[in-house]
Amino acid sequence: MGFIQRIKAKLEKGHQRTVTARKNILLAVLFRGLGVLIGFAYFPLSIEYLGAAKFGIFLTLTSIMDWFAELDIGIANGLRNRLGESIADGDNEGGRSYVSTAYFAVGSIFSGIAIIFIPVCFLLPWVDWLNIEEAGLQGEVAILAMLIFAAFAINFVSAMIYQIFYALQRTAIVDFYQLITKGAFLLIIILLMFFTEDSLLLFGGAKTLTFAFVPLLVGLFYFRRSFRIWRPSWQYVRRDYFKSLFSLGVQFFIIKIAMVIIHQTNNILIAGVVAPAEVTKYEAAYKYLSIFLMLFVILTNQLWVASLEAYKKGEMEWMKKTVWTVIKIWMGTVLLSVVMIAISPYVFGLWLPDEVDIPILLTVAVAVSIALTNWVNLFNLVLNGTGKIRVQMYAWILASLLNIPLSIFFAKNLGWGTIGIVLGTVCSMIPLIILSPIQVRKILLLRDKGIWSK
Description:
The protein has 18 helices and no strands. The chain has 454 residues and is an all-alpha fold.
């Protein structure tokens, strides 16, 4: 047997669900890995084109817009679960109703918000919020905010197509199209550097163009072909299906809002409490260490629906084995992060412009934050798949209430700056670090009673 045949036989060995997960994970690692390389390429190019301060402003603006991206009230995640159940039951008509209802609901929400928010962009005090010192940027930043928000609105509706791939456990295809998006953005940045002067508007336009329209084209393509049976249609919109999506969706919505407060406010806090240029340093450290975060995003996306299917069929042994495998991978990523921290000064020296100097303590703090986030995600992917997310929701709410006060106290009162803001995030997640593993253990041992079963 040749080498390729042996690899193929290894991949196809075991439970069919495991085989599907294994193939998708390997492809996703390939696509995500290429995406990380593209991200490493366009990050220093972006700093060179805009400068550290302007690039920090752009990163902070996108963080603010992430808040609006959560206003689907969790319908996207609800669709992933409900469509996954419909596919498992062979109910294509029910699946089409869920898809149609989800598209209608999200489209209605973002259309209404866009009508209100886009004109308001020109009235908001961006200079004060973002701690902008350069004169004349108010109008440019307002237009950029409008462009970014419009892109988020288009993307959130069009990216619903990716939930169908997730429900089918074909997560690698989503990673492929996200790779295409990043590649297109890199190409446009290179063209901007050759043919234009530094411009927040042109840079933001390039980002919004690729971010918004790639998933739109993907949806148009697949709904005309292999996803025709789930193509959205007015006649398949069901009010009672919205309630079904919303029943899980409202809890996912609360969790996502809490996650935004914890993970997406760092840029805003750094810009406001420290300086916009410091956002660039934080994002550089985060992007560098995102290599081992990437592994867990891949696992989360693939195993969410797989856990739902296994739990629905009562295959607890498969779930136990999978959780233990992911724990071992988590341990490996922690060791990888130690190595990455040790060599980080040399990597940053080669990768980033001289004006971006990243302290080693900031790298350590970001690595700890990512490792603990991965630990929480490890167990939450099981909870999300089974739909038992009540305890997780309460823990996220508590963490979100702690995050901003702790971050400001560490950064401002103790004078720890950006590092203090990252440590505030770490401390706020302690409830999740403790409670999520406890609940998963109870579920796997069939001992989840009371609130642990909700």
